[in-house]
Specification:
There is one protein chain. It contains 12 helices and 13 strands. The chain is α+β, with helices and mostly antiparallel strands and 443 residues long. The protein folds into 4 domains: 96 residues, no CATH class; 88 residues, Beta-Lactamase; 66 residues, Orthogonal Bundle (Helix Hairpins), CATH 1.10.287.130; 156 residues, Histidine kinase-like ATPase, C-terminal domain (Heat Shock Protein 90, 2-Layer Sandwich), CATH 3.30.565.10. The strands form 3 sheets. A 5-stranded antiparallel beta sheet has the order 2-1-5-4-3, sandwiched between helices. Strand 9 and strand 10 form a beta hairpin.
Length: 443
């Protein structure tokens, strides 16, 4: 028999004994003093009632404490003290279990918060019950105010609304979100428990941008190569099918050579890009004279310009001994691309300035300033994308492949520097290569 049953049995036995003693006392009084037997019964009942009242008062004391178990434990006699202590121990065990589970829940929620993916918990009626910090950032939600709101009232993208209504969550869905710029989120719902849902959100903007650039790259390469091939095939058919005079034949061959040279330049730029992207960062132990680089760049620029532009190279005499570390061919490619772009896009007669300067912190800057057509601000962030052209027809007419600035960006980044572009429509542009101080020295 357990202790609680023993306690109850003991209380019943006490009452029976008290009643029996009261009856015996009443009977004795009746025999010797002449009192009626009813008085004995009354005494027994009074004894039982007194014990019951005493137990009731102690029980109320215990109940009052249970209503506020944080208060000090009441001082109870006998078995009631044992009951109070046992109840207190059960409450402590419960509190310890609740604290342990709360700590585990906090650890779990902290792990979710550490994830870059957003998490929303939904109830069976698709109302939000919890929001992670990443999810609040993804959807622009308030983590407290938006609780218990229906999710489709806050996330209104049609693709997500249809996805939620369809109930088929085997595959995720992609939705665009406007947060100062175009952002793409991948959303995936998981059902758990009794109709509850977990909504995961992942920012896939960079992935989408990379996929778009890859598709554009393939399409642009195909287009750039297909155009000269079409021209070449047409001229080849013309040479084979029509009798041409010597003048016509020379003209056709000249145009064919021009298209072949265009394809050769495109392939060369593609190979240069592939080589740059697949190579490790250049070591800092190889040094090249800046004066020698500028001399070769000036020679190439004047040959490309054919005296159509006044070209000025600004270079302090004290910089004759200055050197930059890295791969000479890559520096020539980067600097040469900037100068050749200036020649191509600057109208005849307008000046072009090439400058090298040392900064107070020891870094170097190579800049090319033209007075050409200029570039709208909206195009500047995309100028270094492969095949991106502000004016595609003009670029092709001037012999550009659309890869020059992409090569420049990769070269300067591989050497730890930065490409800066400033331009104003109708007033020209300035392209600057910033070379870090660790890659500049005086020989």
């Amino acid at each position: 028999m357990d202790s609680s049953n023993s306690w109850l049995l003991s209380r019943v036995l006490v009452r029976l004994v008290a009643g029996a003693l009261g009856g015996v006392v009443g009977y004795w009084l009746g025999l010797h003093l002449g009192y009626p037997v009813a008085l004995g019964i009354a005494l027994g009942a009074a004894s039982v009632l007194a014990l019951s009242i005493s137990d009731t008062l102690k029980g109320h004391q215990l109940l009052d404490w249970l209503r506020n178990p944080e208060d000090p434990l009441p001082q109870l006699p006998g078995i009631w003290a044992e009951v109070a202590h046992r109840v207190q121990r059960v409450l402590h065990l419960r509190d310890d279990a609740i604290a342990h589970e709360r700590a585990r829940l906090d650890e779990f929620l902290s792990a979710i918060e550490a994830s870059p993916h957003g998490v929303l918990l939904l109830d069976a009626t698709d109302h939000i019950t919890w929001v992670s910090a990443a999810a609040a950032d993804h959807f622009g939600l308030d983590r407290q105010r938006d609780l218990q709101q229906r999710v489709t009232n806050l996330i209104r993208q049609p693709a997500f609304v249809q996805y939620l209504a369809a109930g088929d969550f085997r595959e995720p869905v992609k939705v665009p979100v406007s947060r100062g710029g175009q952002t793409w989120l991948q959303l995936h719902l998981q059902v758990y428990g009794d109709g509850l849902k977990l909504l995961q959100s992942q920012d896939i903007t960079e992935r989408e941008r990379a996929d778009t650039m890859r598709r554009d790259f393939v399409a642009n390469v195909s287009h750039e190569i297909r155009t000269p091939l079409t021209v070449l095939n047409g001229f080849i058919e013309t040479l084979g099918a029509l009798p041409l005079t010597e003048v016509e034949r020379k003209r056709v061959i000249g145009l064919m050579a021009q298209q072949a040279e265009r394809m050769q330049g495109l392939v060369a730029d593609l190979l240069t890009l592939a080589q740059i992207e697949g190579s490790p960062r250049p070591a800092s132990g190889r040094w090249v004279r800046v004066a020698a680089l500028l001399q070769r760049i000036e020679t190439d620029a004047r040959g490309l310009s054919r005296e159509r532009h006044p070209i000025t190279v600004l270079f302090e005499p004290s910089e004759q001994a200055t050197e930059v570390s890295g791969i000479e061919s890559e520096w020539l490619s980067a600097m040469g691309n900037l100068v050749s772009n200036a020649v191509r896009y600057t109208p005849a007669g307008q000046p072009i300035e090439v400058r090298w300067a040392r900064l107070p912190d020891g870094a170097g800057e190579f800049s090319v300033r033209d007075h050409g057509i200029g570039i709208d601000a909206e195009h500047i962030p995309r100028l270094t994308e492969r095949f991106y052209r502000v004016d595609g027809s003009r670029s092709r007419d001037t012999g550009g492949t659309g890869l020059g600035l992409s090569i420049v960006k990769h070269v300067v980044q591989r050497h730890g520097g930065e490409l800066k572009i400033t331009s104003e429509k109708g007033k020209g542009s300035v392209f600057t290569l910033h070379v870090p101080a660790v890659r500049v020295r005086r020989a």
